[in-house]
Amino acid sequence: MRKNINFKGEKMSKNLKPLIALIFLVILMSTPLLAQGSDISDNRTALFKWSLLIGGALIAIAVTVGAMSQSKAITGSCESISRNPASGDHIRFLLIFGLVLIETLVIYALLISIIILMVNWGNI
C-alpha cells in the first residue's frame, strides 16, 4: 500500500489534499484574468474580475462542503441502519430530508454566484 508522504517524510493529512487541489484550480482558473494588460484602469474591469473570482470561489466552496456533508450523512445513516435495522425507515426518511436540505444550500450558492456574475457592471 502506498502512503501519501510530503517533502519532510511525514504523512500528509487527508484534508490537506483537497485544499491544495482547490487552491491550484483557483489559481489555474484566474490566469486568464491576470494575463490582461494593465493599460485598462477602469474600475468596472476590476469589479468584473473580482466578481468572477468570488463567484467561482463561492460555488467551488459550496460544492465541496456539500459533497463532504452528504458523504458524512450517508456514512452515518448506513452505520445507524446496520446497528438497528428496525429503525431503518425513520433513519432513511431523515437521511433523504437532510440530503435535500444540503443540496438546496448548494443550489442557493449557485444562484448567488450567477447573480454576482450577471450584474451589469457598466451601470454602476
The proportion of residues in beta strands is under 5%
Low-confidence runs (pLDDT<50, min 5 residues)? Answer: none
Secondary structure class reads mainly alpha
Number of strands: 0
> What is the CATH superfamily of the domain at 62-124?
F1F0 ATP synthase subunit C
Distance from first to last alpha carbon: 57 Å
Radius of gyration: 21 Å
Tally of helical segments: 3
Subunit arrangement of the protein: single chain
Which architecture name of the domain at 62-124 does CATH use?
Answer: Up-down Bundle
Main beta-sheet annotation: none
What is the class of the domain at 62-124 in the CATH system?
Mainly Alpha
Instruction: State mean pLDDT (0 to 100 scale).
Output: 79
Order of helices and strands: HHH
Description:
The protein is mainly α. It has a domain at 62-124: F1F0 ATP synthase subunit C (F1FO ATP Synthase, Up-down Bundle). Helix content is 73%, strand content 0%. The chain contains three helices and no strands. It has helices spanning 16-34, 43-83, 88-117. Helix 1 (16-34) packs antiparallel against helix 2 and helix 2 packs antiparallel against helix 3. The radius of gyration is 21 Å and the shape is elongated.
Using brief descriptors, characterize the structure shown:
about 120 residues, F1FO ATP Synthase, 3 helices, mainly alpha, elongated
Q: Can you summarize this structure?
A:
This protein has 124 residues and is mostly helical.
List the helices and strands and how they pair.
Blueprint: H1 16-34, H2 43-83, H3 88-117
Helix pairs in contact: 1-2, 2-3
